[in-house]
C-alpha cells in the first residue's frame, strides 16, 4: 500500500511543547505589536469608538433588548447622534480655538499691549516681548499636538471619524460576539473582568458624561460673566473655558483670572473686581458642587486618579486621553488589587497544604 503521508510528518520537531507554547505567545504578541504600530496614528479612532460604545450601550439595551427595536436602525440612529451632537460641534469649537491661537501666535501685539499695561500699572516686569511670543508659539504648538485630527488635515480627520463610526457600527451590530470574545481571549478571571468593566463604566461616566456636563456649565458661566463685565470676545473665551474646565484644580481660573487682569490694565477696576467676585464665589463653588454630586452619581473616581490620568493621557493620546488616561490609572490600580488578592489566596492555599502534610 502506498504511503500517503507527507514528508514533513516524518521530521521530528526540535521544540518541546513548552517551547512551542512560548513561541506561539511571542508570535501573537509580536504580530499584535506590529499591528498597533501600523495603526498608531489612528488609535484614537478605536479608543473613541470603545468609549462611545460604553456611553451609548444603556440606550442600546433599552431600545434593542427591552423594546425589541430593529438593531440596525438603532445603530444608525446612534451614529447620527454621534455625528450631530459630538463630531460637528467638537470640530467647530476646536477649529475656532486653534484659529484664534494661531492668530495670537502670529500677531501677539494685542497680548503684548495688555502685558505692558499690567507692567506699567504694577511696576512688576511680567515678561520680555520675546518670552511672550515664545510662550504663545509653544502654546499653539502644544494645543495643535493635542488635536492632531484637526491640525494635520481635513482628510486625516475624516479618516479617523470614519474609522470610529465604522468600528462603532460593528461593536453594536455584533455586540454578543464582541463581549464573548473579551471573556474568551482576555487573560483574566470573570471576577477581574467584572471589576475592569465596572472601572471602565465609572471612568466613562465620570470623565465623559460628568466632565462634559461640568465643563459646559463652567463654559456658560464664564462666557456670561465676561460678556456682562465687558471683556472682548466673550464667546471665544467661553469656548476656551470649556476646554480648560477639564483640568482639575486650575480649570476656568486660567480664563477669568487673566480676563480680570485685562480689565485692570484697561482701567476698568470695578469690572475686574466683579469678574473676580463672580469667579471665586459662583464659578468655583458651582464647579466644586457639581463635581461632588456627579462623582457619586456617575462614577466614584478619586481626584488624584483623574489628575494623574489627565497628565498621562493627554500627553500620549491627545484630547481622547482625558478619558483614556484616568482609565489606564484605574486599570493599573484594579490589576494591582487583583494581584494582591491572588497572592494572598495562593499563600493561604500553600499554608493549608503545609498543615495537611
UniProtKB/TrEMBL annotation:
It is a multi-pass membrane protein. It comes from the Bacteria. Pfam families: AI-2E_transport. The keyword Zinc-finger does not apply. It is found in: Membrane. The chain crosses the membrane at residues 21-39, 45-64, 76-98, 154-172, 208-229, 235-261, 273-294, 306-334. Keywords: Membrane, Transmembrane, Transmembrane helix. Belongs to the autoinducer-2 exporter (AI-2E) (TC 2.A.86) family. This is AI-2E family transporter. It comes from Hymenobacter monticola.
